[in-house]
Amino acid sequence: MGVMSTPVDDKRVFQGLAASSGQVAGPVFVFRKRGREQVPGYKIERLQVDDEISRLEDAFELTHAQIHSLSAELHRRVNGPEASIFEGHAMILEDPAVLDKCRRKITDELCNAELSVYQVSSEYAAVFEGMEDDYLRERANDIYDIGHRLIHNLMGTNEPLVGPSAKPSVIVADELSPSETIAFPRHLILGFVTDRGSITSHASLISRALGIPAVVGIGNLSEVARNGETILLDGTSGTVILNPTDDETGNFNRTLESSKIFNASLGELRHKQGLTCDGCHVPLIANIDSSTVMSELYAVGAEGVGLYRTEYLWLSLNREPTEDEQLEAYTKVVRALPHDQELTIRVLDLGGDKIMSSGLAASHNEANPFLGNRSIRYLLSNRDVFKRQLRAILRASAHGTLQIVYPMISVLEELLESNEILEECKAELRREGMLFDENVKRGVMIEVPSAALIADVLARNSDFFSLGTNDLIQYALAVDRLNETVARLYQPAHPAVLRLIDMTIVAGHEQGSRIAVCGETASDPVMAILLYGMGVDEFSMTPQSIPLIKKVFSCIDRADALKLAEDVRNFYARPASEIYSYCQERMHELAPEIPLKNPL
Ligand code: PEP
Ligand code: MG
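That is the input. Now the predicted structure with magnesium ion docked in place:
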């Protein structure tokens, strides 16, 4: 037809998943893993079996020591639950069945140690890869990671971590394991781009915790990129440009410059309250867990804690903490807050993706752990555990202002029974002469659609609501919040979700209850404005997001948010993507300096 097609090799602009925000430009370093073809496989003589086994055992020991020091390094660099990632690796190495299987391959099949490790790790990984559960499927990567390391240790080769010039580079890889991600020397890493992976994979979690920009699920960049080529990586939008033109570099540098100025401007609001431009107070509070360093809250200007996820205490100990251990943990937090700030402690929310390897509380024996005996359901069927926790929280209430929130309430009976158990605990403590706040407030997490639909009834039996939008969206839309393949259906601005939120706010306010939101939507500038307009009273989020959201509110008047919510109520017949785009456009008009997640 005479029309010239775009040459295939001109594909330089890639769109992936924005795994960790920030922009960087620099040279590419392609990280290639050694594949199957590099694993030496050969038959050994029967006489060599003992030597081969001791080589194998030495490699296990060395790998164990390496994992231990990688884990220590990770703990040094990050504080959150991501710091425990290598504990899973250590468990695989310590499992006697794994070493035993490798030994047997050497003895029975007379194969060399490298091949035995390769075969055993592939068999194990294949089992995990075939599992439906996302969390378990991810474990296949941990097994490959360990297998790789064992083979390298047997061969006496080191992983090629950085290019020969050892210049700070953007690492481009097919996929990265957690140990590869952490093993790169921090000062040589500008960013990560991977062909595969999801934003919930461990490597993405580590990148976010380390503040390294990253884009994942990009396609086949590792096949086309060459070492030393220039790459522009935007971890905020998920865009990557290889061998950019001068215009592209110019645009990128302008974005980089304005995001630097913008980030610096956020610091100026640090000591101010969350206020709209016309002076209305919007409390911006923090979601924390037992590993949060409390001074971080001061650094970002948090006005209290809206969600203390207590299950991380269980997860970090891999057992139930005693009443006194809990008392100590809760007291530490309540004491660290100024007197005028509140701490909301959520009772144990184990289950779903938050499981303990010791098997306590909801395990993978359940076909549908997200719909199983998780959270408040587990507590109500294990009253002793519930009572120990409530007693600890009540005792901590003698040291500051705290309130209790029940997660995953789906029927009225759960709330009534929880309140009764709380009263029993109070009566016990009174008898024991222990001090506590008699008027401690009880809240309900609204994160199951049925709870939103009976919010009026729940409000009559509680003091406040906290909207857990992470789960509310997942349960309302039947979309697994961790599954990347259905991520496009996970829509915070879906009219069904907005209607549930609307009902909750109206019902709560009618009873005089305050409404907080503590799901991730609180830290999305677009959704934060909309939710504020819909009537949400306070916003609880990861501490790092507070400066941005403070800035957002400082750019708008309360009336702007109310108008936006009113407009959106008239759009409920439209698809979620249109509703979100409309809100995004409005935000852009009101606050053009706020960076957009998705280009308009
Ligand atoms: C939520 O579901 O929105 C929430 C805050 O709880 P979590 O993310 O811990 O399930
Ligand atoms: Mg939840």
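The domain at 46-155 is CATH 1.10.274.10 (Enzyme I; Chain A, domain 2).
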